[in-house]
Amino acid sequence: MQESWRRRNFLKVGFLSSVVFVMSGCKLFNISTLKESIDVVQNDLFPKAKELGIDTSGYLNRVILHHSRIREEDKLFLKNGVKWLNERAVEIYNQNYTKLSASSRQEVLKDISKTKWGENWIYTMNRYIFEAMLGDPIYGGNNSEAGWRWLAFEGGKPRPTKEYL
After folding, report:
1. Cα distance between residue 64 and residue 43, in whole Å
2. Residue 60: helix, strand or coil by DSSP?
3. What DSSP designation does 152 have?
């Protein structure tokens, strides 16, 4: 009788703990998702894109991280860069990058830019921001040709009729 009572309580506590963790959206342990981190860092690197309505992080997630012609090593580098960025933010400020103030996030970016991986990762992120901004709207970044209009640029002809993934 005593054994079944302990087992039942263990299961209840385990279930309730899981519910609390899931319902908190991982905030309980100060965890940021890959998408959340990419959203914030891309906005920090080029805030004009968000102002223009260009979905740089959606583009990165949709086209780059899932594109069949992007090497797995490159995808892993982008994902690891987010992990390393958050690790560095925790080392400096004891919080994930996405939880920091704008000025603290800039300090973390400056700090990682002094490392080889950080410099390469920031360069790569910027490259994809501009690719999203200047690419054909069919790929989802340059919504309503916002990047083209901002630069007074007319896209190439003929335009693609479907995504090339």
Report:
1. 17
2. helix
3. T
- CB-hemisphere CA count at 13 Å for 76? 3
**46 plus 80 within the same structural domain:** yes
Could you give the CA distance from residue 90 to residue 84 in angstroms, rounded to a whole number? Answer: 10
What is the number of domains present in the chain? 2
Is 155 domain-assigned? no
Compute, in degrees rounded to 10, the torsion defined by CA atoms 128, 134, 139, 144: 130
Q: Which segments in the chain show pLDDT lower than 70?
A: 1-31, 165
110, two tokens: 């400056």
SS3 28: helix
Residues 2 and 20 in one domain: yes
Distance between CA 157 and CA 165 in Å, rounded? Answer: 19
19 plus 36 within the same structural domain: no
Encode burial over 68-103: b for 16+ CB neighbours within 10 A, e otherwise. Answer: eeeeeeeeeebeebbebbbebbbeebeebbbbbeee
pLDDT at 154: 87
Single-letter amino acid, residue 113: S
Range of the domain at 17: 1-29
Does residue 90 sit in the same domain as residue 141? yes
**What's the confidence (pLDDT) of residue 145?**
92
Residue 65 covered by a domain? yes
